[in-house]
Amino acid sequence: MLLEFVGNHWVLFAALGVILGLLTYTLIVGDKGSVEPSSATVLINQRDATVIDVRPAADFAKGHIINAVNVPMNGFKKQTGALARYKNGPVIVNCRSGSQSQAACHVLRKAGFSEVYNLKGGIMAWESANLPLTRKKR
């Protein structure tokens, strides 16, 4: 009876297999290129990590991590040359929630940046951790 059910619904079981495989991969590999806000502060304070904020300039002006560099995601690939001076040190990339910054991290890694981290949860997680923001320009 089970074999008949699987045979009649093979697409669902194939999808289940793919989902289980992806979940297993995520658990094994983890989120190696990301840092929590508390770990980000350690990188900033102890290793002088550069923070790159990929949010639009208007959002950046409302509040950002101290000494962050604003390079909006719109046209980010064209701006990687301007960021070359940060290539050999730790770089933390943030956005509002962490999804756009993940894409920016990928671009930086492809451009040869040696140590790139995505701020897990973005600026929202930073604020939730009660960490400081500033409105001052660098």
Explain this structure to me?
With 138 residues, this protein is α/β, with parallel strands linked by helices. It has two domains: 30 residues; 95 residues, 3-Layer(aba) Sandwich (Oxidized Rhodanese, domain 1), CATH 3.40.250.10. The chain has a five-stranded parallel sheet. β2, α4 and β3 form a beta-alpha-beta unit. The longest helix has 20 residues. It starts with a helix and ends in a 10-residue tail after the last helix. The model has no long low-confidence stretch (mean pLDDT 91).
Shape: elongated
Number of domains: 2
- Rounded to an integer in angstroms, the radius of gyration calculated over CA atoms is 19 Å
CATH C-level category of the largest domain: Alpha Beta
Distance between the termini: 68 Å
In order across it, which strands form the biggest sheet? Answer: 1-5-4-2-3
Compile the SSE list and pairings.
Layout: H1 2-8, H2 10-29, E1 34-35, H3 37-47, E2 50-53, H4 57-62, E3 69-70, H5 76-79, E4 90-94, H6 99-110, E5 115-119, H7 122-128
Parallel strand pairs: 1-5, 2-3, 2-4, 4-5
Q: What are its keywords?
A:
single chain; 138 residues; alpha/beta; Oxidized Rhodanese, domain 1; 7 helices; 5 strands; 49% helix
Task: Give a nutshell description of this structure.
With 138 residues, this protein is α/β, with parallel strands linked by helices. It contains 7 helices and 5 strands.
